[in-house]
Each structure stands twice: as structure tokens, then as C-alpha cells.
Amino acid sequence: MGERHCIDYYTKFIWNGGASLNKILVVDDDVNIRKLICRILTDAGFAVCEASDGNDALEKFYINDISVCVVDIMMPNMDGFEFCRNIRSENQDIPLLMLTAKTGISQKKEGFGAGADDYLTKPFDAEELILRIRALLKRYQIISAQTLTVGELTIDRESHTVTADGVRSDIPMKEFEVLFKLANTPGKTFSRNQLIEDICGYDFEGNERTVDVHINRLRERFPSEKYGFRIKAIRSLGYRLEVLS
After folding, report:
1. Neighbouring residues of 244: CB distance < 8 A, sequence distance ≥ 6
2. Tell me, what DSSP letter sits at residue 222?
3. Which residues contact 64 (CB under 8 A, 6 or more apart)?
4. How confident is the model over 82-133, as pLDDT tens digits?
5. What is the DSSP track for 80-142?
6. Coil, helix or strand at residue 212
7. Which pairing describes strands 47-51 and 23-27: parallel, antiparallel, or unpaired?
8. Strand pairing category for 238-243 and 161-164
9. How far apart are CA 245 and CA 108, in angstroms?
10. Sheet containing strand 190-191, strands side by side
11. Residue 60: pLDDT band by 50, 70, 90 thresholds?
12. How close are the terminal C-alpha atoms of the chain, in Å?
């Protein structure tokens, strides 16, 4: 990553979103990369906060109102993986975007396992960085601290639980996210790619049929005749949730 990406940003992609209340924590031990990322984000309308490693980032995270963390992996003292694990261990529900110079799938697996929401490989284009951050913010803003009721089921995003007949229970996280996404806008059809990008991240490299597995498990878990809704497959398009009258 270098000045060319900053030049590309100014010449081909200008954001007109105005000032933003979102503050981004940028964590990277390379001061030049960190300053460049901060410059890009500031010009895109974000407030920024800098940290040079995971320890520094944890301190600044808890004294600032952070909306998104952009975290390098390879850093001294505390690397990006450990930082993400620390954030998730405190049940902090905040978007985490990891950066790396390596392209291996093993690092991506470890990153997602540590709690990262998305992954971006260096060098990257400034436009793509902003797109991913905005997508993460949109995803979290749509689903944060909401309670939905569909049919006989209440879905609580804050506790990641579902309740029916007064009984609250947990379901696997990916199933929950698929269910909440569909239930948030009943009647709207989502393509498999939309569901994968929103639930698994922009650059998910698995099979799109992974969504089918989650849908089938949800159907088995919540039969329509008992819960008053169904998840319907729309041929060649995707899925939508329908509330039964």
C-alpha cells in the first residue's frame, strides 16, 4: 500500500456523505500505513483514533466511542488476532475489519475464528476500504439492539436468543443471523450472495450453498405450522420469510 492508492482515491472516488458521527479505531504498527488509512477515513467523513499495537488499541477502545476497528494482524506486544479475541471476550458487538499482507486462507480462518467480521488484504484500494467499512456499519446498524416478532417467535438481537411460548433459547450464531436478516424485512427476497455477504463477509470464499444448509436447519427448528412463518425458496432468486395469516 502506498501513495498511489491515496492518489487513486482522490482522482476516481470522492465520497460526498458529509460529516459522520462514527469513529474508526485504526490499529497498525507501521506509522506510514496507519497515517495513510487515517487520512483516507478522515476525508471520507469519519472521525479516527490511532493505535500502534493491540495493547494500545485496547486502552483507546475503552476510552473512546468506537464504531469500527480496522486492525492489522502482525504487530508487536499484542497482534490483531489477540486484540479481536479480547474484544469478543468482553461481548463487545462492534465491527472488526482485519488487515494483512498475507493472502493465505489459514490466516483468514484464524481471523474469523478470533471474531473478525471482514478481511482486507494489503495492498488495497481506498475505495474498497471505505466500501467495506460502510457495509459493516450498515449491517450492524440494521440489526443492533433490535427485537423482532414473526409469527409466534420473538428474536432478540442483543442477547442473540429466540423466545416462543415464554421459553427462551439459543441457536447457532450463523443460523440466528440468517433468521434475523430475513425476519427484519418479511416478504423481501434475498439472494444467496446477499445473505453470504451480510452474514459471512464480503470476501467469503466458501460455497454459496452454505446458506441452504442454514435455511434447512431453520426450517427444521421452526416448522411453519407451529411458529406461524415460513422461509420460502424463490426459484433462481433466493429466499424470503413469509408470516402466515
Report:
1. 151, 224, 228, 229, 230
2. S
3. 23, 25, 49
4. 999 999 887 677 899 999 887 778 888 888 889 899 989 888 899 999 999 9
5. HHHHHHHHHHTT----EEEEES---HHHHHHHHHHT-SEEEESS--HHHHHHHHHHHHHHHHH
6. helix
7. parallel
8. unpaired
9. 44
10. 190-191, 238-243, 229-234
11. very high
12. 55
What average pLDDT score do residues 164-184 get? 91
Match 478522515 to its residue by C-alpha cell: 42
Instruction: With beta carbons less than 8 A apart as the criterion, state whether 234 and 240 touch.
Output: yes
**Burial (Cβ within 10 Å: 0-12, 13-18, ≥19) of residue 11:** exposed
Burial code (b: 16+ CB inside 10 Å, e: under 16) for 221-242 equals ebeeeebbbbbbeeeeebbbbe
DSSP H/E element including 210: helix 210-221
**Residue with cell string 485496547:** 58
Say which amino acid occupies 141. Q
